[in-house]
Amino acid sequence: MEERSEFNKAKKVCWRLLALRDHGERELAGKLKNKGFEDEIIAEAIDYFRELGYLSDHVFASSQVRRLATGKGYGNRKIASFLLEKGFSETIIAEAINTVRQEWSEAQALTSLIRKKTTSGNIRNDLKGKQQLVRYLMGRGFPPGLIFEIINRVEEEDGHDDDSK
């Protein structure tokens, strides 16, 4: 009878946490573990909420990728690293990134960030500024090859604007 009571307490904790925001299975299990619940009760609660459809690593990973890609302007490498730390499998991460990148590609995100960071002027002749920009973008998780390709494309587009004046 006490096990039912513990399970009901665990469900209440889960309801409260899931009402605030989505959680991954591992994250929710960790929070239950921190509250002192036994492994069997945690597994039962996770199964219960998964069966109800309130707990899905695929949905949670996709929402995290969307938030990091569009909201924070992260590249795929940084997103994957973040989700690996959260305990998601590489398969789930790859699926989530592919889904979100169909809406907002990494090149589009990178172009947007470069334009945002270079609004003050042309970076064509500013070697130090270009180096800082490259380091910043690499820190955001974008691959170097794509960074240089997009920077060159933006420089060419800006150069054409100057020639037409």
Account of the protein in words:
- The chain folds into 3 domains: 2-55, Arc Repressor Mutant, subunit A; 58-103; 106-163, no CATH class.
- The N and C termini lie far apart (82 Å).
- Helix 1 (2-20) crosses helix 3 and helix 7 (106-117) crosses helix 9.
- It is an all-alpha fold.
- It contains 9 helices and no strands.
Strand-helix topology:
Layout: H1 2-20, H2 25-34, H3 39-52, H4 57-71, H5 76-85, H6 90-103, H7 106-117, H8 127-139, H9 144-163
Considering the chains and any ligands shown, give keywords for the structure:
Arc Repressor Mutant, subunit A; 165 residues; mainly alpha; single chain; elongated
**What amount of the residues lies in strands?**
under 5%
Question: What sequence of helices (H) and strands (E) makes up the elements?
Answer: HHHHHHHHH
The number of domains = 3
Structural classification: mainly alpha
- How large, in whole angstroms, is the Cα Rg? 22 Å
Q: Kindly report the average pLDDT value.
A: 89
What profile does the largest beta sheet have? Answer: none
pLDDT < 50 runs, ≥5 residues = none
| Total count of helical runs of at least 4 residues | 9
Helical percent range? over 70%
Instruction: Give the termini separation.
Output: 82 Å
Query: Which term fits the overall shape?
Result: elongated
Number of strands: 0
